[in-house]
Each structure stands twice: as structure tokens, then as C-alpha cells.
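Take a specimen:
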Amino acid sequence: MAELAAILTPLDADGWAAPSRCPGWSVSDVVLHLAQTNEMAIGSLQGRMAEVVAALAEGAPATADVDEGAAVMVERERGASGPEVQARWQAGVDELLAGLAAADPAARVTWVAGELSVPTLATTRLAETWIHTGDVTWAFGQDPAATDRLWHIARLAWRTLPYAFLRAGRPAPGPVTFRLRSPGGDTWVFESDDPPEDADPTTVEGDALDLCQVAGQRAAAAETTLSAKGPDAEGVLELVRTFA
């Protein structure tokens, strides 16, 4: 979040209006979307997410899916100046961080895809902020920083593979192991502690940065260092994701 703030603060009107990596969205639109979804997360922690979503989409027609709903909310509220959008986003960041710090880590809260734990909600916000920071830096020919925070995003992608397959209408995968090179050169391994003895595992290897880009749907696996072998290899590389 600090990285994104440092990018946004010096922008002039042309910078805020620059096309982002998200088709049809400017830099301002991307930051507005982050502000809106952070407000949804605050509502989730406070037990009033449905109320917040209803206010953000007030007067808008019904939408078919999450992506269409996000587009409608941005369309409905775009038009503020860049500094105004940044101030709204920053206020939401501050409130969200305070809410996450105060929340019971064992509590479960409502989110887009159903109930999840407070730590998982925090990780989804980290993942989305990182993805959209890349959408903003793309506008200026830059890449987002790759740091060890990617561990959390890669782990989220691994843990939510059953959801990714379910969302696509496919049977859940068998055991999957990620073996990833971290930005610092270490190896991160995500695997089940107790896989079925007769299961044929699937293994994904490559750079953690590439995995996070693919899971954020900002790159195709074939364009990266990622490789996979095992019965669910093709499905994992196609369906892995870090957002609803």
C-alpha cells in the first residue's frame, strides 16, 4: 500500500487519466476500484458488507458477475479528481488496517465468495492491492516491486485451488504442491501435510512472481517460467486465481 501511495502522490492530471493495464480503466479508475473494495472489506469486518455494496451500486442495474459489478460501481462514481480519489483510498486503507488489527483472527466474515477468516480477508486485500499496483505502474512502463510479501499471495493461490476449480464447474483437484523461487532466491514450498497415500500429486514449479501474475490473471502460464506435471497440471495453470 505504501508502494502505491508513493506512485500516486506525484501524479498530475494527465498521470491520473493515463490508461491502466485494465482495459477501459484509467489510473484513477483503478484506485477508485481499490477504494470501493476496501470499503467493502471494512463493511465485512463490521458485519454490514451487504449494506456497503448496496450503497456503492445504488441505482445500478443487476449484474451477471463480480467483474461486471465492479465495472458498474466504478462507472457510477468516476469523475472525482485524482487527489480526491487518492484521499478516499488512503482513508479506507487506514480504517481497514485498524479494523484488521483489532479483529479476532479466529472470526469468520462475509466476503464476495462466501465466508472466510479475518487473516484470509487481509491476504485477499494484499493480493488485490498488489495486482492493481501493477496495473498502475504498467501505465508508466514500470513493474511492481517483487518482495517476500509475495509469499502470502502465492500461498493464497495454493489454498484456494479448490475454489478456483469449483468456480469453473470442475471437480476439485487432487493434492497440489507449489515449489517456487522467491524474489530473494529461496525456495517456497506449499504442499499438504497429509496427502492421501494413493493420490497422484500435481507439482507446479517456477518463479513466485510468475505464479502471482498468473493467479492475478495478468499473465498466461505459457508466457512465464512456470511448469507443471501431474494429473491436474493443465487445470491448475489455467484456473489458479487469487480473487473471487
